[in-house]
Amino acid sequence: MKAAYRRLLIKLSGGQLAGGKDFGIDPTVIGQTADQIREVHELGVQICVVVGGGNIIRGISAADQGMDRATADYMGMMASVINALALQDALEKTGLDTRVQSAIEIKTVAEGYIRRRAVRHLEKGRVVVFAGGTGNPYFTTDTAAVLRAAEMQAEIILMAKQGIDGVYDADPNSDPDAKRYAKLSYEEALVKNLRVMDQTALALCRENQLPIAVFNMEEVGNLKKLASGKAVGTRVGD
Fold this sequence. Notes:
This protein is an alpha/beta fold. Helices cover 39% and strands 16% of the residues.
């Protein structure tokens, strides 16, 4: 396989790192994720990753239970740093030089986010894991993924899903007649409120003409296929 992109961004949810568990990090799953990222890196692609923290705490859920929303969101940002460090460890065990950059200052374990430094890491062949979301409450890690992809001038965002192979017109887990889209425009995804990413993030993708590929990360090989330009899951945008 040959690389179809020079630089791409992978969005991982915290839930994916938990595997089938409700909480925590599954060492087997994070190891498999690192192996798949390494395969893409071997194609010569520059890779950056944004990881969520939902396997530890979800800010919105905590806020719904009475916690102050800003406080809950900051806790979620710190959870994403924990996941980023775990992913860094797994990636480095595969031989990939990796840097974690955090949008919230946490000097002991991660670099602060500096765009030019991140770009330089990518140019040197390092995988860069962005943690801490945007550094602001009320914004999801989906929005952080689009923001970082735009700043890094990534050519595509790969939205990894857990057990779902794309975007459907209904919930495939409850509706056996749900149909998967092969391609979607930004406008169609926004108007129909489809589960691509949150609306703020999707609108930002449209403004910056950033294509999105939504795919099942649990199917080994999908990540490499997408990096090679093959049609997998649902394509949103161009």
